């Protein structure tokens, strides 16, 4: 009997070791293996616009960093609210993100009630970059300058139309700010993304468009659209837009309306998952492929920490809230 004691003790020790190992596995956070399936980036616009281009270009190299496919899911509508709401209501596990724009921080000022909690519904991941909006017309437009647009709008109140990629977007606000500072009455035509808006601009259904540089860069380069001005405080460093004047220097002093792109995850996403996503995104936007695709269209790459993005976004929310209130901008 005594000879069996050492064997029994050995087996019991083995049992305890296995039990402890199992307990550690159970106690380990589920995010430790992240990602073990595809990651989805929701683009709250129709395909073909600047946000879609940035997300798709970024997704290619980001998938290599994560070791999983990055899927782009276009959910346009309601000035980005439909796609943003879908992400807010997704599981906080890092597998569903939204490529946000300035509309994300402006909608709370434009909408009396949102289906999600703007302040508590999201976790910042990374600010991808900042770029100008561009005031463009089709190649055969009679408008050759910002002054021409202002003159036509004053001579024909309400008859000059401007397109944007959606109500509440940076392009919409760029147009509304333009109206207020020039004291003109122009008609806003919102679309479910830059793609369909550009199609109608080229087809002559609308007169001018305030668009992100990423959305119209190729059309400017191939001569289908003519850039009249950029909306930033200074001229764009992009070779394609370097000679394009600012709206401010074109007779509208004080005019500034930037555009930006940033990734958010649902609130409650584990900090280690946010860190992995931030690192993958940061490497992605520093690749030559990404730089060549977007920097030529005016995007100034950022790529800081989640905290940096959060601080920037809160500053933007406060700035645009003031502009919306002072200029009585609505999304009617």
UniProtKB/TrEMBL annotation:
Pfam families: TctC (PF03401). Residues 1-32 form the signal peptide. The keyword Signal applies. The keyword Repeat does not apply. Gene3D superfamilies: Bordetella uptake gene, domain 1 (3.40.190.150), Periplasmic binding protein-like II (3.40.190.10). Keywords: Signal. It comes from the Bacteria. InterPro entries: BUG (IPR005064), Bug_dom1 (IPR042100). Belongs to the UPF0065 (bug) family. This is Tripartite tricarboxylate transporter substrate binding protein. It comes from Variovorax rhizosphaerae.
């Amino acid at each position: 009997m005594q000879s069996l004691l050492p064997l029994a003790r050995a087996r019991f020790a083995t049992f305890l070791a296995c039990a402890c190992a199992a307990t550690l596995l159970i106690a380990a956070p589920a995010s430790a293996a992240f990602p073990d399936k595809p990651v989805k980036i929701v683009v709250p616009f129709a395909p073909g616009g600047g946000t879609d281009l940035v997300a798709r270009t970024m997704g290619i190299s980001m998938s290599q960093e994560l070791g999983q496919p990055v899927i782009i899911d276009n959910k346009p509508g309601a000035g980005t609210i439909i796609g943003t709401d879908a992400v807010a209501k997704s599981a906080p596990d890092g597998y569903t993100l939204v490529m946000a724009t300035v509309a994300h921080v402006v909608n709370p000022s434009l909408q009396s009630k949102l289906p999600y909690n703007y302040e508590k519904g999201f976790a910042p991941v990374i600010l991808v970059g900042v770029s100008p909006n561009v005031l463009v017309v089709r190649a055969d437009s009679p408008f050759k300058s910002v002054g021409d647009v202002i003159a036509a709008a004053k001579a024909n109140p309400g008859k000059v139309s401007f397109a944007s990629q959606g109500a509440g977007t940076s392009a919409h606000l760029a147009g509304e700010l333009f109206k207020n500072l020039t004291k003109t009455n122009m008609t806003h035509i919102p679309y479910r993304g830059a793609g369909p808006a550009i199609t109608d601009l080229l087809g002559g259904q609308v007169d001018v468009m305030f668009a992100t540089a990423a959305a119209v860069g190729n059309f400017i380069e191939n001569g289908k659209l003519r850039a009249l001005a950029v909306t930033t405080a200074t001229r764009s460093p992009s070779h394609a837009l370097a000679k394009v004047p600012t709206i401010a220097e074109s007779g509208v002093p004080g005019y500034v309306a930037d555009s930006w792109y940033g990734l958010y995850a649902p609130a409650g996403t584990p900090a280690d998952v946010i860190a992995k996503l931030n690192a993958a995104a940061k490497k992605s936007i520093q690749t030559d492929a990404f730089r060549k695709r977007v920097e030529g269209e005016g995007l100034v790459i950022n790529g800081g920490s989640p905290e940096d993005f959060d601080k920037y976004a809160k500053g933007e929310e406060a700035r645009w809230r003031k502009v919306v209130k002072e200029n009585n901008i609505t999304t009617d």
